[in-house]
UniProtKB/TrEMBL annotation:
It is an enzyme of class 5 (isomerase). Keywords: Isomerase. This is UDP-N-acetylglucosamine 2-epimerase (Non-hydrolyzing). Belongs to the UDP-N-acetylglucosamine 2-epimerase family. Its EC number is 5.1.3.14. It comes from Spartinivicinus marinus. NCBIfam families: wecB (TIGR00236). GO terms for molecular function: UDP-N-acetylglucosamine 2-epimerase activity. Residues 30-366 form the UDP-N-acetylglucosamine 2-epimerase domain. InterPro entries: UDP_GlcNAc_Epimerase_2_dom, WecB-like. PANTHER family: UDP-N-ACETYLGLUCOSAMINE 2-EPIMERASE (PTHR43174). The keyword Isomerase applies. Pfam families: Epimerase_2.
Length: 371
């Protein structure tokens, strides 16, 4: 690159941090002349949801934190747009790079497109076809607004083509979140460090299950949340449960007065944990039960069985090639799959193509040439 170009990279919520870290690292290594501006929207703001990820993943301090905080989907999206627009006016970037499918992703893509700034989307083309989830709407709209789209799996390209996105804009680059996983795996914290005295529960049992829940469809409805917590308690009779509780879930457990459902000698609840702690928890678990998107991919990369507590996934390769099984919120099915994993060890799976730890380097090479 001969002329200095300006690229704004956007992060906002927890799952963005693992995706942006290797991209920033690769771009800085390859393009000393690139003016790389990092903007954090502030969608996630707690120390547990933000700062410890920046520190552990070596993400540079953002040039600007828009500090939007919580709000309804529309208020949060609108507030991000309102606060991001002056940054685009100030930096006059050649392109804006967004990752994933959170509100910050669509909000910043829309501002950029409206200002005729080129949009780059990393993790493009994933589709659950479930538009009751805000993330699916964010994915479809962000891809429509994007000028360069990097995908993690081959099917994504077909999804984009079916929606009229020109194949010339799409590059199959691999999975940047798995770059972060591979880069950090040797530094992952062993659960004994995190759980301190509670680790004896796991040591005694010889194994544990790891649970995460935060989707509005699972945690915003008191009956569904109570049903899932009741099953966690049942599962704890068979295998110790480690459950880092997301702020949304924590608030709802308190609001619906469900704390007693987590009282069991084999249930260990935690505040949200850092990246290296979560990586250690996943890597040492007998199985993971989750409604997260990223964890479906991380468990596939680690070869750990995963039961997904959702009706669908936008990451089908974790099912067809990886260790993931969709179980929804059907307790009979969850129980059956859990028992089977405890008896047989679960799906073996293989690591998908280009989930090799070098996706961000491929993106940086392509992006710098394209810019
Ligand atoms: C968001 C993303 C979701 C992603 C998840 C990962 C959207 C639409 N959703 O959902 O795709 O999987 O992040 O965590 O973008 N809160 C805090 N501290 C924080 C952040 C949030 O207490 O640092 C609380 C707030 O009360 C907030 C609630 O958690 O209302 C939910 O946060 P929000 O960012 O609205 O959505 P998530 O459920 O985190």
């Amino acid at each position: 690159m001969t002329v200095t170009k300006t690229l704004i990279c956007v992060v906002g919520a927890r799952p963005n941090f693992m995706k942006i870290a290797p991209i920033v690292r690769a771009l800085k290594a390859k393009a000393t002349k690139l003016n790389l501006v990092l903007i954090h929207t502030g969608q996630h703001y707690d120390q547990t949801m933000k700062a410890q990820f920046f520190d552990q993943l070596g993400i540079p301090e953002p040039d600007k934190d828009l500090e939007v905080g919580a709000g309804s989907l529309s208020v949060q999206t609108a507030e991000i747009m309102k606060r991001f627009e002056p940054e685009v006016d100030y930096y006059k970037p050649d392109a804006v790079l967004v990752v994933g499918d959170v509100n910050s992703t669509i909000a910043c893509a829309l501002v950029s497109a409206q200002k005729k700034i080129r949009v780059v989307h990393v993790e493009a083309g994933l589709r659950s076809r479930d538009r009751t989830m805000p993330e699916e709407i964010n994915r479809v709209l962000t891809d429509q607004l994007s000028d360069r789209l990097y995908t993690t799996e081959k099917l994504a390209e077909d999804n984009l083509a079916a929606e009229g996105v020109c194949r010339d804009k799409v590059v199959f680059a691999g999975n940047v979140m798995i770059d972060t996983l591979r880069y950090n795996l040797a530094q992952a914290k062993h659960p004994s460090e995190l759980l301190a005295d509670n680790y004896s529960i796991i040591e005694k049992a010889g194994h544990y299950s790891l649970w995460t829940l935060h989707r509005p469809s699972n945690v915003d409805n008191p009956e569904i949340l109570q049903k899932l917590l009741t099953f966690i308690k049942e599962a704890a009779d068979k295998i110790p449960v480690v459950f880092p509780v997301h702020p949304r879930t924590q608030k709802n457990i308190q609001k619906f007065k469900l704390s007693s459902f987590l009282e069991h000698p084999q249930i260990i609840t935690l505040s949200p944990v850092g990246y290296l702690e979560m990586l250690g928890l996943m890597n040492n678990a007998r199985l993971v039960l989750t409604d997260s998107g990223g964890i479906q991919e991380e468990t596939t990369a680690l070869g750990i069985p995963c039961l997904t507590l959702r009706e669908n996934t936008e990451r089908p390769i974790t099912i067809s090639e990886g260790t993931n099984t969709i179980v929804g919120s059907d307790i009979t099915l969850i129980r059956k799959e859990l028992d089977q994993i405890l008896q047989t060890g679960g799906k073996a799976g293989r690591v998908p193509t280009l989930w090799d730890g070098h996706a961000a380097e491929r993106i940086a090479d392509d992006l710098l040439a394209w810019l």
